[in-house]
Design brief:
Length: 243
């Protein structure tokens, strides 16, 4: 398997695990695949490492001494933090769900195959790269298909002034789509884009959110620009004007 070649400098992974043996194995394996790796044993060491520089991704053990991984993940989610892949020897569905709800980008049960962890890391970094915002600086609204999406007031209005109520999750999803017109976005990418502190924490189904958005757009007086791309995801098929 070849190391990532598209980056001028290697991406940096911070491994947070109290098991020195696991840290050493992961550090050696990830380094062989082109990543710069730093390892620490607990949350306090992690905080000091973050002060020295921001990694591209954190591999975070759930069962840490002192502050546990769930608490760390919750704290990081409230900041502008790198993506997190959480590891846990417990492997219970409830722990996985709680970890994802607290902001982890992926979750893997221990003991894990380093190759699977590598694949998860690459997938998370790829999704984050695709999800980088492209909004023009200073844009306060976007107009498309007779609709105006106010980014400050978080309002969607038709040309005749009809307002359509959006939940926080629907607003984030519609904004994510409108910011990237005529680009096919996978469900995983849309999930990353729509996830945020204001998004409904327990409704992770992009398909359900898309269905709700389409129903509201269809009931209004503008068009519905959301297109399903079979086997790939969704595309916002409209010209978008930023104001």
């Amino acid at each position: 398997m070849q190391p990532p070649a598209e980056h001028a400098t290697p991406e940096k992974i911070l491994v947070v695990d109290d098991d020195r043996g696991i840290r050493d194995v992961l550090a050696e394996f990830l380094a062989r695949h082109g990543y710069e790796v730093e390892t620490v044993a607990d949350a306090a060491e992690m905080d000091r490492a973050l002060e020295r520089g921001r990694p591209d991704l954190i591999v975070l053990d759930l069962m840490l001494p002192g502050e546990n991984g769930l608490s760390v993940c919750r704290r990081l989610a409230a900041q502008d933090r790198p993506p997190v892949v959480m590891l846990s020897a417990m492997g219970e569905d409830t722990d996985r769900i709680v970890g994802l709800e607290l902001g982890a980008d992926d979750y893997l049960a221990k003991p894990c195959n380093p190759r699977e962890l590598l694949a998860r890391i690459r997938a998370v970094l790829r999704r984050r790269g695709e999800a980088r915002p492209s909004e023009a600086p200073g844009a306060a609204a976007m107009e498309f298909c007779g609709w105006r999406l106010d980014l400050v007031r978080r309002e969607l209005r038709a040309a005749d002034g009809l307002a359509v109520g959006l939940s926080n999750g629907e607003f984030h999803l519609l904004r994510a789509l409108a910011e990237r017109p005529r680009r096919v976005l996978s469900r995983d990418v849309l999930l990353d884009l729509a996830r945020g502190e204001h998004t409904e924490q327990f409704d992770r189904s992009i398909d359900v959110q898309i269905s709700r958005l389409r129903r509201k757009l269809a009931e209004g007086r503008g068009g519905d620009p959301i297109r399903t791309i079979r086997g790939e995801g969704y595309m916002f098929d409209a010209e978008v004007v930023r104001r």
